[in-house]
Amino acid sequence: EEIARLLTNHKRSVLHPTPLIVRMPIKTKLTEALGIEHPLIQGGMHFVGYAEMAAAVSNGGGLGTITALTQPNAEALRKEIRKCKALTKKPFAVNLTLLPVVTAPDYGSFAKVIVEEGVKIVETAGRNPKKFIKFFKENGCYVIHKCVAIRHALTAQRLGADMISMDGFECGGHPGEEDIGNWILLAQAARKLKIPFVASGGCANGAQLAAALALGAEGMNMGTRFMATKEAPIRPEIKKALVEGDERATTLVMRSVGNTERVYKNSAAEKVREIEAENPGDFMAFRHLVRGENYRKSFQETGDTKSSVWSCGQSMALIDSVPSCKELVSLGFSYLFLSSFLLF
After folding, report:
1. In which element (H, E) is residue 135 found?
2. Tens-digit pLDDT profile for residues 169-185
């Protein structure tokens, strides 16, 4: 009603449109279910999703997320959760990603600590989540499952997930093997799913949030965009690369082993691609180049953008500044902006 009143009273000109800004807090099923101010989630990110990052996003009005597997073991995760509790009194989540690795972590012990520490929001992702969705639901958690395909989202819905994070091919990290972008995924999710969903992958600004809401999403999940914030616990050289990069600054590795990852396009990533072309399917041939420790050092010690294979998404094309998390969330996304030159 407020939007209609302002539009009716506002003088519009086709030749010389005057922007009309309508400032209204956005309430969605996401904000209401989780008790957050703005429909924005900071997704799980390896070597980025620490307590300080999660707390900064939550304190800014979004949902911050600790990445469980960034911690070396379950007890270290317990300490990180407690640290986050000391930094914010607002809701935050923990991400638990199930991916094919040479030596699998003890996922069960991580899940147990999440529950024992009273975390009530969990972002699951990866393969075969049945056991963990069941476990978290039995312990009173709200489960957001990240999917890259509608068929996976339908499975997660059947398994009891509360919400889906629909992750398009534009995303950083693991976009799956089906190569479907958000323009199709979100429209399909609105048609096929009975539970709410948020947009994820390639997300970075308020215009995209408005588009996601129009397509039926209840909010937006961002990873790469939150890497380029003041509180992100990574070297400034990495943030600078994200600001300077464009939509062509990523590439795909590990396609030949069925574990595709979107990463920053640099000499290390190109070397992996060369090895894969010569030895398709031979993970051990390039394993030394994709070790997580390599990009932990780049993120936290050296700031070298070229010597490791590190995840980021095509949304870097839309990043042109390094604000605080509060500035990004509460100023950049807290209101729905409508302009008078749009045709209604």
Report:
1. helix 130-138
2. 999 999 999 999 999 99
Q: How many CB atoms lie within 10 A of CB 61?
A: 20
Q: What is the pLDDT of residue 75?
A: 98
Q: Which two tokens stand for residue 217?
A: 């999403």
Q: How far apart are CA 297 and CA 30, in angstroms?
A: 35
Is residue 303 within 8 Å of 237, Cβ to Cβ?
yes
Contact 226, 58 (CB under 8 A): no
Beta strands in 139-255 (DSSP E): 142-147, 163-167, 197-200, 220-222, 250-253
Sign of torsion over alpha carbons 132, 138, 140, 146: positive
- Of residues 113, 17, 34, 32, the one with CA closest to residue 72: 113
Q: How far is CA 222 from CA 93, 201, 310, in A?
A: 14, 7, 16
Quickly count: other Cβ atoms within 10 Å of residue 159's Cβ.
Answer: 17
Look up tokens 């190569």; give the residue.
Answer: 179
The residue type found at 215 is L
**Identity of the amino acid at 22:** V
Question: Could you give the count of Cα atoms lying within 13 Å of 190 in the half-sphere of its Cβ?
Answer: 14
- pTM for this structure? 0.90
Answer whether residue 342 shows pLDDT above 50: no
Structure tokens that stand for 76 in this block: 């270290």
